[in-house]
Amino acid sequence: MNEGLELLMTRRSVRKYTDEAVSDEDVEKLLRTAMAAPWAGNEQPWHFVVIRDRHTMRRIMEVHPYCSMLDHAPLCVAVLAELALEKHDGYWVQDTSAATQNLLLAAHALGLGAVWLGVHPVKEREEGIREILGLPEGVECLSLVAVGHPAEHPGPADRYDPSRMHHETW
């Protein structure tokens, strides 16, 4: 299989990490890759908050019920959008989703493990994250990504289902 396709097919959500820190160089690679994602009308609305502080991660766990892995993750990245940078109203969700996916793939390519933790559109999570990270009005959080050196290695999952494929019409 082509190396790029293999990367796509073997990426899995990783929720258990070793104690090893994620290097600053790897963080830069993750964010460069996230910022290389496609966006609507060249708007590039994204911002990122890099979180390493244990206290902050524990506070996030209090407002997001599915973030228990942050108790051991050495790194969390909040994927945000500044709505004033939008050229096409509402496309920030697609733009930041693409950035989140690129970040996940970059983590896998670097030998790191990562998992997407959805924030938007759950209002309670959005408000909690806004308060914890001190986000200004007009900046929205789509997702959090927990990142670390994997302590587990889930195998690839083949989810191809030809019954879900349609040609020309439904």
Summarize the topology.
Layout: H1 3-10, H2 24-35, E1 46-51, H3 54-63, E2 75-82, H4 92-109, E3 113-118, H5 123-133, E4 139-148
Antiparallel strand pairs: 1-2, 2-4, 3-4
Commentary on this structure:
The chain is α+β, with helices and mostly antiparallel strands and 170 residues long. The protein has a single domain (24-152), classed as NADH Oxidase (3-Layer(aba) Sandwich), CATH 3.40.109.10. The protein is built from 5 helices and 4 strands. It has helices spanning 3-10, 24-35, 54-63, 92-109, 123-133, and strands spanning 46-51, 75-82, 113-118, 139-148. A 4-stranded antiparallel sheet has the order 1-2-4-3, with helices on both faces. The longest helix is centred in the middle third of the chain and has 18 residues, at 92-109. The chain is globular.
Short description, anyone?
The chain has helices at residues 3-10, 24-35, 54-63, 92-109, 123-133; strands at 46-51, 75-82, 113-118, 139-148. The chain has 170 residues and is an alpha+beta fold. The protein has a single domain (24-152), classed as NADH Oxidase, CATH 3.40.109.10.
